[in-house]
Structure formats: structure tokens, C-alpha cells
Amino acid sequence: MQFHNNRSGRCGNELGLAQTAAGARPDGLLFPHPSNRATVKELFHRIVEDYYTWHGQCTGSPDTAPTAPHDAPEHRQGPGPGMDAVCRVVGELSGRLSHASVPWPSPMYLAQMTGDTPIAASLAYLCGMLYNPNNVTPEASPVTTELEHEVSDDLCRLLGYGARGWAHLSSGGHSANYEAIWIARNLRAVPQALAEHPGTRDLVSHHAPATLVNLGVDEVLALLDAASARDVREEVLRLAADIRRRGGLSDAKLLVARTAHYAWHKCVDLLGIGAGNTEWLEVDDGHRMDLSAVRNRVHAHLRRGQPIVAVVACAGSSGEGSVDDLDGILRLRQECEREYGASFYIHVDAAFGGYCRALCLDPAGDMLPYAEVSRLIHPAVLKQEVYDAFRALPRTDSATVDPHKNGHIPYPAGALAVRDRRLVSLIASGSAPYFGHGDGRRLPFGPHTLEGARPGAAAAAVWAAHQLTRPDCTGYGRVLAGCLATAQELHHRCRTRGVLRVMGREFRLVSRFEPDLNIVNLTVQPTQVLPGDDMGVVNLKVLEGLRADALADPHGQPWVSSNELASGDGASAGLHALRLCVMQEFDPPTLDMVWRSLREAISRQLAAVVAEPPAT
Amino acid sequence: MQFHNNRSGRCGNELGLAQTAAGARPDGLLFPHPSNRATVKELFHRIVEDYYTWHGQCTGSPDTAPTAPHDAPEHRQGPGPGMDAVCRVVGELSGRLSHASVPWPSPMYLAQMTGDTPIAASLAYLCGMLYNPNNVTPEASPVTTELEHEVSDDLCRLLGYGARGWAHLSSGGHSANYEAIWIARNLRAVPQALAEHPGTRDLVSHHAPATLVNLGVDEVLALLDAASARDVREEVLRLAADIRRRGGLSDAKLLVARTAHYAWHKCVDLLGIGAGNTEWLEVDDGHRMDLSAVRNRVHAHLRRGQPIVAVVACAGSSGEGSVDDLDGILRLRQECEREYGASFYIHVDAAFGGYCRALCLDPAGDMLPYAEVSRLIHPAVLKQEVYDAFRALPRTDSATVDPHKNGHIPYPAGALAVRDRRLVSLIASGSAPYFGHGDGRRLPFGPHTLEGARPGAAAAAVWAAHQLTRPDCTGYGRVLAGCLATAQELHHRCRTRGVLRVMGREFRLVSRFEPDLNIVNLTVQPTQVLPGDDMGVVNLKVLEGLRADALADPHGQPWVSSNELASGDGASAGLHALRLCVMQEFDPPTLDMVWRSLREAISRQLAAVVAEPPAT
């Protein structure tokens, strides 16, 4: 097996940029290309045929198509607008979208975490959408609920959660993260409820109060099973809710890296944890959560019997793509369990980076040895530390992983996965009385998700993409290795070819740190700082200029986004970096073209800034 | 203007059932029909053409289509699966969906709140989805964010919230309801924070503590504006969060009707209000919230200074379609404001019924006089009480209204609307640093929604549907009047033609109450009760039998769902009703056919139950 041929220069189709003649990019995903236009149209045809046949069966209309040409006048009898009005509105929409949409498929697009969507995912979404299934209950989605169960198995395998795990799709990372912390928050109150309930008190009487508040996840789940056996589980859970309501856990802390997604601010407010209980931890030079900061906080809390809702780690922080040291955090947890008999819940926000674990997986879902990963993809692509974090991930408690980010699926396709499916019973609610009940083999989705109605089309899209591109080293692993390699190449070019000469001055493009995944953060620095240089202002002006130019010429200019750097090397703190999110692999000519365009565009912005008279 | 012609018997196209020859149903919506198959295919063609042209511009591929036929061998060079594999997977999906999907378009489908999806909505969703916009920020959705602003205006007009209102789409009713109560919960802690903060204390010092905890919504908003003017608004909000965290509002109550959607159980747990603080109020014979129960609870709480998070009313309860007496609840609020100087937040769960307000609106969004509504649609279709509730709705504080229910849009398309856009600042969070900022004219969506990533395709679908079918009496009003009329016709047929003779016994189909909207609840009753008759068991068995038969023969049998009746007439309580959710208007022949099928299917189930030997 030999991935990643293009890095050796063997792939260089200059006409189609990063695409082969048939629309297959070097990473193996199939995107629109003139050569597959006819086939895609034919597939649309077939989907529409199937849909009309089904529709005719539903309504009792004759299911033979009329032979009249499509532009024959339609003798409408209804009072509403006719097909001519549909054509007008849809035509306007199609025109507006094709005129002004964000050019995700372009290699020059390096801003948000959205790339091109593979043909299979788009067609599957369309196909599912026409039948409008709702995965809240199999009664409303006999086909796509089954597909979501398969996707659930795939995602658990991807994250290493195994047979006890469970996953479901969500509208996005926000909901998935809320749901994880909802579980963790509810779990945290259970030990106290067990201690208060006369039917379970004996089960926890050997624990000191300080230990009890931070009992380990597996122990709490086992105790709940014991409560079930005594038929008091529901009472215990109600008591736990009451303890929370009374403010019994009003000082429970959530530990999150400072680089965490802005959704975490919403999360702690929504769930009533409170900003005051949220500890935003420092990050290190690589923008990973600083392990000594976690250690200090966790030890302090456990020693004092201060409850911890969860430690939230990132596997691919949204600003930097940094992967926290999950192995270190898990070792810290073991250490605490030995020292205090107390523990904490670990949630991983792998919304962006979760699919990258595919680089390390063989088709059975087992971790490849690091040497093998290196050999299969490219020696430098996956850092040992990132590999170690992915190897540790299966021991964490839950993880958000969004197919609509590095999975390349159209919105909406977020997901939450849990290591032990018993966890979701902590948020389970009675299902609506007008839904029937599942067959018991599979955990029903409706009562165990934060959301209710969920489009079955999203499950169809993820399922189809996974059918063609497996979430392991043969599929997504190869695709994402290409993105990582391209990000690293951009990082290295800054090091070796990052000098810009503008209006007689010399600047450098600085990549702030070697990327863990497929995001690069650049800033512009002068080789010699002159009096009056304010690089914070300069970088911000460069960013604003790039953004304005890209909006003015969407197909001709590079698109980047900005990222306010949390810390890292002291010099970065508070600086607005140019954030490049690489959602596709570049072959060498494309890389050269993008690199040249970036240099030129940044130089042009710098020239404008340098030429400005200093503010008075 | 003359709506609803088919009720006078003038429309009776028996070939196409409820459709005219060109696929326009009598209600004016356009659905798939053999006569528009060619046009729809042509539209797909055009959408795909536009998409490929855009894609070529993005990737630099030549944008002329090759002349090779679609089945020419493709000389793929990439390592991944080719178009043959895409065809196989998408073909399998299309086949499975067309074989086993739920027959929403069929008039025999009367189970969940999902109907047929109009062509325009499906095509617009597809068209939007291909460009994969994300309405979290206009940077990721320049076209569809603009469309969502138009939809926001439409939804505010539909609910009567006017120019100060604001609305946004969500993944569904769950999220929208969570968000509303998140706002209400946060608002409730603000007065106490104002009293504690040294910079605002004087603003509320004239209020007694018991009044302070339940200050009115508008007064709290005005006080927050005053805090803004003093530059302490953020401090006050942080203090409010801290008060909540400390359990300062641990006894705040949420008042919800017993018929409320099961999502409310999730909601009170998620937001930390707690099941113990949730008061499930009785309903009256029409399954509307019992106003005297609300009055008793609210007076008791306000008198004692017990905080009320919100009173949640329904405009279309999900089990029964009942519309609560919003006018009565609002008069109660005024009464309390006079008596105690205290008030409460009113949220309306109009997820199902919100679009029915269109029956009462002229194209400018103003309420038509009741006599005019009666004259325009049909004298009996809209009850005076329901009209009064819709007239009162604009004075409530927020409402959930789901385009993917009575708006006939594909999933996911829920929505939340607020009367005063300042309300959403109570949950606002800083936006991600890598997003740019809006132009100030419009409230940006990302920082003001519970969810983050939201598919722009959903906004495109709602926008397109609203372009063709306005949310007023000329558009959705006409569509939904037809659904209501059909539901009422089914109700009346039970009264007049509901006798079933089975195995020598006589039973009656009983519609439990005259429906407010388009849901009918039926039970089966024997004319003479015999010893051993357990009608709870009989109704449940009939339901289970109907469900099994529909699954076995999706296109030949009626589909109903079950509903456990909360109360109403004493005899109903706890009974499992056959719930018919009418998502389309029937012309007379269709109505006869559905009625006959229902009678036959129920009689068949009854025969099986009656023939069973009694349980020993």
C-alpha cells in the first residue's frame, strides 16, 4: 500500500489543478468535474424517476410519465402558482447561489472548516431528502434509522469506543457538546443522590464525602446498575436532579482549554454551570492544553472535594487544529484515582479532528503501529504525540465528531459518541406517546438525543460517504493525510521561503507553530522592527484587506480567516493570525500556485499598510 | 376571493385523487405528478448545470461539458472508488428509499406531522445543499443568510411580532423551545442582579422583593437598557448568572400543560429548572390548558414572591392540535400586573400550529376580522376561540414555529421567534474569533442561536416555499384551511356515520373532541358495554393491529398514530386514542375513500379482538 503519491511529484495534472481528468482528486474523493457531469445528471434522473414512481404509488397517480415535452403548456386547475412560478423561483435561487457562493472547492479557499462535498454525499443527501425521513423514530424513517445505526457503529469504530459505545448524528458540534456536558453534569450528582437515598446509601457509605463527589464514571454507572437491580434507579435520578436544583453542585467546575470553541461559552450558560465555574486553562507553545495547568487544577479540586463536571480536551482545536495530550490527561486521571480514589469525566471536542484518527486505523478499526502509519502515509505527516493522543482516545468518556467538518458531508451532520452507551440513560426521557417503540436490539435515537426531529437525509449522506470512503487508513485516512501533508508543506514554506520584500522593507511570513492537523496560523513580522511598527495592527489590516479582496473577486483571490491566538509562544498572545484551514490535498503545481497567490496577496496588503501615513 | 372550492363539490378529479391533472392539489401547493415529471427533471438539469459551472470556476476546470456519452469508460487516475461505485451506492440507497419509505404523500397517511413536500421546497433545498452554505455566519453563506433574514421577517409577520421581533431557523422544535426557556430563565435572574449591583441598585429600589423576582419582561428589558447606558450591563448579566448558579432561583417554576410535547421533560432537565419545579397543568375538555388552573398557580406564586420562569402555552398541542386560550392567559397577566406589579414570561409552543395563523392574515400581515376569515374560508373551519388565540399571539414573548411541520418544508426546519429582539441578547455569546462581523443592519445569527452550524439549504427551502405560498390567507392560510376542513369533516363523520357492526356487536368511532386544528383523536366504544369489556385494551390492540398492517402494506392501509389522552372529558384519561394528523386537504372522493378504508381497517382489527378468547 502506498499513499500520497503526489508528494513525490508523480501526479501533476496541470489542467485540472488538484483533480485528475475524471474528477478524482489525488486523495481519492470524487468531486464534480466535466468528465462526470453526464453521469451525475443521469444519477439525478434515476433518483427523480424512483421518487416519482414512489410518489405515484403513494397518491395513486398513474406512474407512467407523459410523453409531452416539458415545455408543453400545463393546464393547471389549482388556485396556487404553477410550475412556471416554481421554475422562476428555483431559477433565481440557483442563479444567486452559483453567482455568489463561497468557493469551497477552490484550492484558494482556506478559510472556514468547509471543503468541497463529494458527489456521493450530495446525491445521497438529495435522495434521502426527497423522501423526507425523520430519524426521531423508525416509524418516520424505516430506512434511514437503519443507516444511522450503521453510521453509529462506524463512528464508534473510528473513535475506538468499541461495542459498548454508541453514537448518533446531531445538527452540529454545538448540540453534541451540549449533550456530552449534560450527561457529565447529571452524572456528577448521582453519587450524592445514592448517598441520600435510603435504598442505596449502603452502596456508597464507605466513601468519604470528598471522594464521593468525584466518583469515577465507571463506578457511577455500576452503582446505577445496582440501583436498577434494587428498583430505585428512577428515584435516585430524580433525587440527583433535585440535588442539582437545590444548588448542591453549584461549585462544580468545568475545565476547558482557552483555545476551546466559542460554543463552550454558550454551553456553560445553557447548562447552568456558569462562567464563574468554568476554568479556561492555559495552552502550551503548540496551542495544546497545558498539562501542568490541568494537573494543578485537578489536584486542587480533588484534594478539596470540589466537584468537577468534566475536563474538556480538544482533538483539533477549531482555531489551531491542535490535539491535546489525551494520553497525559488519562494518565493524570489514573494518578488521581490512585491518590484520591476520585476521578473526573473526560469529554473530547473532536468535532474537527475526530476523522483524522482514521489515519491510524486498519480496516478492522484497530490501531496500526506508529511506524506503520508513518510508512503508509508519509514520515512527517502524523506527529508521534498526535498518534499517542488518538491511541488514548478510546479511554475517554465521550467525543464530538462532525462529519460535516473533516468528513466532507454537507450540513447538517454533527455527531456525539460515548464510550459506554449506559451514559445516555442519564439524559433519557420518555418518548412521545404517539411513537411506537423499537425492537430492543438497538438503542432508539429519539429518547436519547438532545434534539428531536433529525433529518434522515443526513444519515443517508454519511452512510453513503462511509460506504465509498471508509473511516480508516484506506479511506478517510488517505484523504486527511493529504490535507495534513499540505498544511505541513505550507508551514515549511513559511520557514524556508517566507521572506516578502515590500516597499523597500523585508517581512517574513511566520507559521506560529508546526500544525498538529490541517490548520496553519500565520502572522507577518518585519525582519527589522522600526519605531512605530505595531504588528498587531498590521496583521489585522492585512487580514481585513485579504477578506475584502476575496469578497470582491471570489474566484481569483485566496480566502483566509482570522484567529486571535490565545497564547502559545509569548509573542503570539492576542495577535490576529491568518488562519489557513486546508480541506484538500494539493499536488505540487497547485501548492505552488496557492503559495504564490498567498505571497502576492499578502504583499499587496502590506504595501497598502506600509504606504499609509502613520496615525496622528 | 373564494377559497376552498372543493368543499362545494366542484372539484372531483377522481383519477388523481386529491390532485388536479397537473399535480396542483386543491389547496394550491404543487407536488410531484406525472404531468410535471419532465419539468422537474429539467429543473434538476439546470441546477446541476449551474452547480457544475460554479464548480469549474472554483477549481479552474474547463467549464464546457465533454461530449462523451455518460457511459463512456472513465479513465480514473485516483486511488479511490470511481463513478461506478457512486452509482452503485446511490442506486442502492434510492432503491431502498423508494421501496420502504413512509408514504407521506398518500391521503391514507395520517400518522406523524409530516406531509408531502412541495416541489419548490425540495428543489430549493437541493439547490442550496449543493453549495453547502452554513448560516452560522454570512462569510460561509452570503446568499442564504440573506434569505434567512427574509424568512425571519416572514415568520415575525406570521406570528404578529412586528418590526421589533426577530426569528431564526433551528434544527427543530426541541432546540427552539430550549432556546426560548433559556432566554426566560436568564431574564428571571436579572432583577435580583440589578438589585445587588451597586451601579443599578437605585433603579429597582422601589420594588418589594416579592415583586422584584417577577418583574415584567418589558420592564426587565428597559432596566437592562438603563444598565447599558451606565456601562454595567455585562456586569449585571454576569451577576445574574452567578445568582442562578448559587441556587438563587432554585425554586423558579415552569408552568406547562399536561398535553405539552415530551421534549419539555428534556428541556427542564437540560436547563436545570428541574422536574420538581415543573408544574404540569390540567387541560379542559378540548385539551386546552385549563385557565383556572393557570390562574390558581400564578396567583399563588406571585402572591408568595415565588419566581416563575415562564408559562408555556400551546398553539397546536402535538397530540391533539389544541390551541390554548392565549387571550385568557394574557388577560391573566394584565390582571396580575395590576394586582401585584408582578408578571411572567409567556412562551408559545406553536411548533405545529403557528402556520395556521396565516388563515387570519391579509397579505400585509394584518388580522382579518373574524367574519371575513369565516367568509373567505368556510364558516366552520376556524373556531372563534382559536381566532382569538391567534389574535392574542403577538402579545406573547416568544413562539416556536416549525416550517417542517405545517409549513411542509423538508427536515430540518424549526424556528424560534421573539417579540422583542433585545430578548436574544440574554443568551448572546461572543462570536468565534475567526468569523468576521456583520454590517450592523441585521442581527447576526451565529452569536444569537443555541446552535452553531445551520444549513443554509433549509433557509433556501423555506424562502422558496414562502415566495410561492405566502404565509397569509392567500397562501398557507388556504392550504391549512383545507387541512382543518378535512379534520373537521372526519370529526363530523364519526358523529354521523361512526357506527361499526362487528361480529354481531355494535361499536362507535368516537372523536374525543372537536379539533381546533388538523388533528383528530378517535377511540372505539361499544354501544353496549358487556362484562369483560376493557376498552383501554381494545383500543390499544386496534392501534397495534393498524400499525402492523400499515407496515406490511404501506400503500394499501391507513396509517394512524397513537395518543395517550391526558384528560379532557373524564372518560378519556389515559386512553390510547387513534390520532389522525391531517396534512392535506381531501376532495370528496378522497375523503370517502379514506373514511371507508379507516372504517374497514378498524372493523377488521375489532373483529380480531372480539374473536379472541378472554385472557385467563
UniProtKB/TrEMBL annotation, chains A, B:
Pfam families: Pyridoxal_deC (PF00282). Its cofactor is pyridoxal 5'-phosphate. This is Tyrosine decarboxylase. It comes from the Bacteria. Keywords: Lyase, Pyridoxal phosphate. Residues 62-82 are annotated as: Disordered.
